[in-house]
């Protein structure tokens, strides 16, 4: 029997696929889920109800399955090593297969299929952010030490393009061996997967693996934690090591290769992105980079590292609005930063930047503090 994109049979049931019988119903997933404070999502209940496979269609119709941000807190907290969020994603895939999704989700998925990005932007303008810069382009078969994967959101969003532009300026200053892919670069599929379009996700894995393996790269450097996480988790056939750009810059600052031109006399608090932290275990490198910036006083949130509060930007939430009127988690995060006395909330993820900056403006705190990506800060204190 086929439900959505999930094959259910006597030998491969929904229960077996997600090891639902391994769940002891302790409730730690729901207790740790940050979304429960503002939505009706109860992860433990979904896992329990999914035991009864006759209820799957009914469960897939519940709006709460779209409240999950895939922050991975439920999996981190599960004493049995299960991944409750995967149950919700499987239910989403049933909805996508049925075609009864919100127009924003439908349009994002169609845009990935046709243009290689979820933002309904033409592939031809993917590299417009490079205008005026001396960007080294990688060529298939030609050895390159660092092959950069930009990310759809950074490539197309004017607010975020400074991340890529600053990267190029600093790479050129350091005379590093690097290359960018260009307009052939295509969505990594991270948000496609979390939106439930498994077929398109599998196609992206195949196409991107072929594209990335065509380059003789020592390593692939991802700008976004989402690209970094999905490459390392779901792309088993990549020939090159994949790192996040903060790991590269941790190496560079550790080797004293960064030519500082000034100081940043600010109190900075770092927000751990879920996909870099809880999903990938990268906590120290971004902090190391920030600590090396002259003048920076690095602060810590009470909820940091594996306890970091999700900003609600992931899990397809850029295309699915929450109907809750309660305070957004990003607003809570900004209030926490303000209480710490931070001048800057530093992030290393494009989605975190957008959600936290939106919360900052909504709260009216723009005159008191700012949200900035680490590459944005580096661009302000590294020699041109």
Can you describe what's shown?
With 384 residues, the protein is α/β, with parallel strands linked by helices. It folds into 3 domains: 2-97, Alpha-helical ferredoxin (Fumarate Reductase Iron-sulfur Protein, Chain B, domain 2); 104-252, no CATH class; 260-381, Rossmann fold. It is 41% helix and 10% strand. The chain has 17 helices and 10 strands. The chain has helices spanning 14-17, 28-32, 43-49, 56-60, 73-77, 85-98, 103-115, 152-156, 161-174, 190-194, 198-213, 225-234, 245-254, 284-292, 329-340, 350-363, 374-381; strands at residues 2-3, 6-7, 143-149, 178-180, 216-222, 241-244, 267-270, 297-299, 344-347, 370-373. α9 packs across α17 (374-381), α13 crosses α14 (284-292) and α15 crosses α16. The longest helix has 16 residues, at 198-213. It starts with a strand and ends with a helix.
Task: Please render the helix and strand layout as text.
Blueprint (H helix, E strand, L loop, with lengths): L1 E2 L2 E2 L6 H4 L10 H5 L10 H7 L6 H5 L12 H5 L7 H14 L4 H13 L27 E7 L2 H5 L4 H14 L3 E3 L9 H5 L3 H16 L2 E7 L2 H10 L6 E4 H10 L12 E4 L13 H9 L4 E3 L29 H12 L3 E4 L2 H14 L6 E4 H8 L3
Parallel strand pairs: 3-4, 3-5, 5-6, 7-8, 7-9, 9-10
Antiparallel strand pairs: 1-2
């Amino acid at each position: 029997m086929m439900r959505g994109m999930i094959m259910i049979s006597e030998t491969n049931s929904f229960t077996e696929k997600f090891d639902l019988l391994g769940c002891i119903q302790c409730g730690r997933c729901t207790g740790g889920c940050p979304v429960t404070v503002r939505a009706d999502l109860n992860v433990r209940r979904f896992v329990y109800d999914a035991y009864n496979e006759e209820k799957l269609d009914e469960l897939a119709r519940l709006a709460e399955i779209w409240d999950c941000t895939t922050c991975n807190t439920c999996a981190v907290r599960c004493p049995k090593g299960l991944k409750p969020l995967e149950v919700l994603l499987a239910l989403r895939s049933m909805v996508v297969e049925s075609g009864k999704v919100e127009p924003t989700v439908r349009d994002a998925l169609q845009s990935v299929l046709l243009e290689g990005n979820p933002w309904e932007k033409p592939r031809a303008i993917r590299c417009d952010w490079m205008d005026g810069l001396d960007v080294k382009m990688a060529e298939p078969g030609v050895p390159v030490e660092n092959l950069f994967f930009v990310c759809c959101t950074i490539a197309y969003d004017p607010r975020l393009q400074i991340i890529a532009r600053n990267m190029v300026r600093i790479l050129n200053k350091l005379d590093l061996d690097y290359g960018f892919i260009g307009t052939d670069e295509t969505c990594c599929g991270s948000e496609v997967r979390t939106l439930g379009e498994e077929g398109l996700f599998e196609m992206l894995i195949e196409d991107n693996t072929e594209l990335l393996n065509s380059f003789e790269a020592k390593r692939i450097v991802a700008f976004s934690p989402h690209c970094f996480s999905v490459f390392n988790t779901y792309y088993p056939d990549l020939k090159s090591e994949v790192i996040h750009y903060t790991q590269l810059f941790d190496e560079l600052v550790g080797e004293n290769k960064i030519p500082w031109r000034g100081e940043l006399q600010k109190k900075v608090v770092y927000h751990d992105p879920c996909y870099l932290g809880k999903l990938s275990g990268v906590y120290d490198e971004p902090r190391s980079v920030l600590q090396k910036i002259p003048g920076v006083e690095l602060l810590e949130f009470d909820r940091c590292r594996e306890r970091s509060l999700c900003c609600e930007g992931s899990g397809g939430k850029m295309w699915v609005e929450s109907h809750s009127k309660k305070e957004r988690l990003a607003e809570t995060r900004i209030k926490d930063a303000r209480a710490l006395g931070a001048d800057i909330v530093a992030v290393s993820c494009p989605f975190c930047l957008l959600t936290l900056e939106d919360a900052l403006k909504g709260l009216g705190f723009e005159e008191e503090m700012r949200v900035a990506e680490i590459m944005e800060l580096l661009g302000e204190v590294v020699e041109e």
